[in-house]
Amino acid sequence: MTLIKKKKINKHILEVSLNRPEKLNALTKPMWKELGKVFKKLSKIKDLRCIVIRGEGGKSFSPGNDIGEFEKERSNSKLAKAYGVFLHGTLRAIQDCPIPTVALIEGICVGGGMEIAACCDLRVCGTSSRFGVPIKRLGLTMAAKELQALLGITNYSTAMEILLEGRILSAKEAYEKNLVNKVVPDEDVEKEAYKTAELICEGAPKVARWHKQFAKEILKTGKVTSKLNNLGYKCYDTKDFQIGYKSFLTKTKPKFKNK
Length: 259
Hints:
By secondary structure, this protein is α/β, with parallel strands linked by helices.
């Protein structure tokens, strides 16, 4: 069985699915490895404008790592560190992906599942979705490289509340804590996520990628270098800028060429 499914929605949008629905898409080492490989390959596709990631089956994005795998793969620090190489490498591959990403969240989004969603640019969930990282009950820490993803979408205080209390949060509370961008009725999650993807695709592709690059660099260094600032002017030399401003003047919808 293919653990990570890929489906081309149209020329510019591709769907990536965690494919273990019989276990609510609980994550295993092979899944982490395959997901990382998939994102590294997709990151090189120039015409791709948006990646939507979801859990197969409609009941769960992912409840996190499969605990049944711990005895064999993560029963001590040496094994856990080796496991972490793949897990953290995959989270980094999603974060570093230059293509805008949208997490389509149905049902459970907990632990490693929430970490994957946190690495995406935008998150859309249903009203019955649930979030949290209750690993304190397992006697486990969230590794620093995993915590980095959580801190990227919320603040220190909220991250500590999630980890120290270990509660499962409702979609409403997740929205209030900036863990998700949109909460819609369960039956509308797919529709809303793809509406978001289409809106992303309507813009100039190079601009979307530049915005990701700027934001990540600023968050990483805490400053704006002259080099980074000057990079922002490159858009004026693109064909898409010519298409964009001329379409605005003629009141027509721009059809960007990614050039």
